[in-house]
Amino acid sequence: GAVYDLLYDDTLKPVIDDWTPREAWVEAFEERRRQLLAEATEMDSYYAEGATRNRKQADRCTALLRDLGGAA
C-alpha cells in the first residue's frame, strides 16, 4: 500500500493522507527506521556510503515520527 511504497522510496517525502490511521504511519516509520539502522550497522564494514545514506533516512524517519507524535 501507500505506506509501504513510501518507505521504500529513497526520497522518503511522505504525504500523510487523511484516510490512513496515524498509528499505521507511526508503526511503519518505526519499523523502517529499525530496518535502516540494522542495515547501516551491517554495511559499516564494507560500504560506508550506503551506511551513511541509511542513517540519514533513519533520521528522516525519526523527524517524521516526531511530527506524527510517535515514540521517536
3D structure, described in words:
68% of the residues lie in helices and 0% in strands. It has three helices and no strands. Helix 2 runs antiparallel to helix 3.
Indicate the proportion of strand residues: under 5%
Integer-rounded radius of gyration: 12 Å
Largest sheet at a glance?
none
| Contiguous uncertain segments of 5+ residues | none
The shape, in one word, is: elongated
First CA to last CA: what distance? 23 Å
Instruction: Report the count of strand segments.
Output: 0
* Fraction in helix: 55-70%
Structural class: mainly alpha
On the 0 to 100 scale, the average pLDDT is 80
Helix/strand order: HHH
Layout of strands and helices, then pairs:
Blueprint: H1 2-7, H2 22-43, H3 48-68
Helix pairs in contact: 2-3
